[in-house]
Amino acid sequence: MSVIIYGERRYGTVEAYGGEYAQTRFFHIWFVPLIPVGSHWMTSRNAGYTIGLHGKSVLAAYGRVWGPAIALGTFVAGVGGNPLMLLFSALAIAATVVAWSWRNLRGEAAIR
User: Fold this and answer.
1) Is residue 103 a contact partner of residue 14, using CB atoms and an 8 Å limit?
2) CB of 58 within 8 A of CB of 12?
3) H-helix or E-strand containing 90?
4) Which end of the chain is less congested by CB atoms within 10 angstroms, N or C?
5) pTM, 2 dp
6) Adjacency order of strands within the sheet including 6-17
7) CA separation for the pair 30, 73 (Å, rounded)
8) Is 39 helix (H, G, I), strand (E, B) or coil?
9) For residue range 2-42, what is the model confidence (pLDDT) as tens digits?
10) 50 bridge partner residues
């Protein structure tokens, strides 16, 4: 008999500054975010406000988790003889890097 781990969990922390940040709750299976449930602006570790679904947070969560898996799969397919898959692998790696770069606010204009 196998155990299936599922539930809701927060992913996609973005725009962090001064201890505050946006996060999105996802329904997950085996800690892989599948369906966004709602977003929150967190003011401390366990306190925050409900906000509308935060698109950047959703994209960050998907990019951080699914990006490396897609990159690995397309890289293996590319090495196996399909050079177009190597391009998709590079794009998936780039998307993952961009998703991680959204974690903290940078620059004076963004912080304001």
Assistant:
1) yes
2) yes
3) helix 83-101
4) N
5) 0.84
6) 6-17, 20-29, 32-42, 48-51
7) 19
8) strand
9) 899 999 999 999 998 888 899 999 999 999 999 999 999 99
10) 40
